[in-house]
């Protein structure tokens, strides 16, 4: 990952801290535990790939990355809420997230559920605030928020989670697995690329290329997750390994084998890089090429 990308990730971290409630007002003290729970997960590091993609594609298409920052942070809020809910006992029932107790373990199940709900609504408050809309324009703000809303809903992330839950304990074909992953994992990654394009007022052709790139790295990302669930270790990943096998889930590794799954990650990564061909060479494009390679080789 490029040094410039690391610098933007640091700016994303600072912006997330600024958008998150602080629990300092007199009224906020009445629900301070909720705010602590929200901040516990939102500010807990992570790769910040989704918000970075918003900024990268905004910059690649000639837009102002700083103006796109509220949307990048909103996307990360939605992603964080999904992780909190994903770890709940009624979902994957995971005790660890990023090397720390999952939100419902650090607080309690009800607080974690509400913290996720609060982060979801905070995302749209952040994107559609008067300050944000005045900077990017009403049309761009509405389009970007609409992209995120659909990607996070029944036709995207939540739909994919339902397929995931219903697939436990039974074999599913590769086609179903791909649809599940394109919804559960890929939808927000594609949304990130599209949001960056919309905020930069990119051409339809540029947006189509960005979507192709995002779809490829999104699927590669999930396959690499399946690989790491088999080959990784809990300390490095910051979460329990072997959970897919324990939950009797079909994965790319179980269906294709480890070596073929690895080869597919590399193939998808090459195709992602090729999708960037229409864009002019430069630092922005080089950063996205580097990011695709980094994701395909990650160990956590």
Helix residue percentage: over 70%
Q: Which series of helices and strands comes N to C?
A: HHHHEEHHHHHHHHHHHH
Q: Order the strands across the largest sheet as they lie in space.
A: 1-2
* Rough outline: globular
Biggest sheet character: 2 strands, antiparallel
What is the number of E strands?
Answer: 2
Strand content: under 5%
What is the SS-derived class? mainly alpha
- For the residues shown, what is the average pLDDT? 92
Span between N and C termini? 14 Å
Number of helices: 16
Rg computed from alpha carbons, rounded to a whole number of angstroms = 19 Å
Quick description:
The chain contains 16 helices and two strands.
Describe what you observe in this structure:
The chain has 16 helices and two strands. By secondary structure, it is mainly α. It has a two-stranded antiparallel ribbon. The chain is globular, with a radius of gyration of 19 Å.
Question: What would the keywords be for this entry?
Answer:
single chain, globular, mainly alpha, two-stranded antiparallel sheet, 300 residues
Note the topology.
Blueprint: H1 3-19, H2 32-42, H3 49-60, H4 65-86, E1 96-97, E2 100-101, H5 103-106, H6 109-127, H7 130-136, H8 138-152, H9 157-166, H10 174-199, H11 204-231, H12 234-237, H13 243-246, H14 252-256, H15 258-275, H16 283-297
């Amino acid at each position: 990952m490029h040094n410039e990308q690391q610098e933007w990730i640091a700016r994303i971290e600072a912006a997330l801290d600024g958008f998150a409630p602080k629990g300092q007002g007199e009224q906020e003290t009445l629900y301070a535990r909720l705010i602590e729970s929200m901040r516990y997960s939102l500010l807990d590091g992570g790769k910040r790939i989704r918000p970075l993609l918003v900024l990268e594609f905004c910059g690649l298409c000639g837009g102002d990355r700083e103006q796109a920052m509220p949307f990048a942070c909103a996307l990360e809020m939605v992603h964080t809420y999904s992780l909190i809910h994903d770890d709940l006992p009624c979902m994957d029932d995971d005790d660890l997230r990023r090397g720390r107790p999952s939100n419902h373990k650090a607080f309690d199940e009800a607080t974690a559920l509400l913290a996720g709900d609060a982060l979801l609504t905070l995302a749209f408050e952040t994107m559609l605030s008067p300050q944000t809309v005045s900077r990017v324009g009403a049309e761009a703000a509405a389009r970007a928020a609409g992209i995120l809303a659909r990607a996070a809903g029944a036709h995207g992330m939540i739909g994919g989670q339902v397929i995931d839950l219903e697939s436990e304990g039974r074999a599913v074909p590769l086609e179903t697995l791909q649809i599940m992953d394109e919804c559960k994992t890929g939808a927000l990654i594609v949304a990130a690329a599209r949001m960056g394009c919309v905020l930069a007022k990119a051409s339809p052709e540029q947006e189509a290329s960005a979507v192709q790139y995002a779809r490829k790295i999104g699927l590669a990302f999930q396959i690499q997750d399946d690989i790491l669930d088999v080959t990784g270790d809990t300390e490095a990943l910051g979460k329990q390994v072997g959970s897919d096998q324990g939950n009797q889930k079909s994965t790319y590794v179980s269906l294709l084998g480890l070596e073929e799954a690895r080869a597919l990650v590399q193939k998808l990564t090459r195709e992602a890089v090729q999708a960037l061909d229409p864009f002019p060479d430069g630092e922005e494009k080089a950063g996205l090429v580097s990011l695709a390679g980094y994701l395909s080789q990650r160990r956590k």
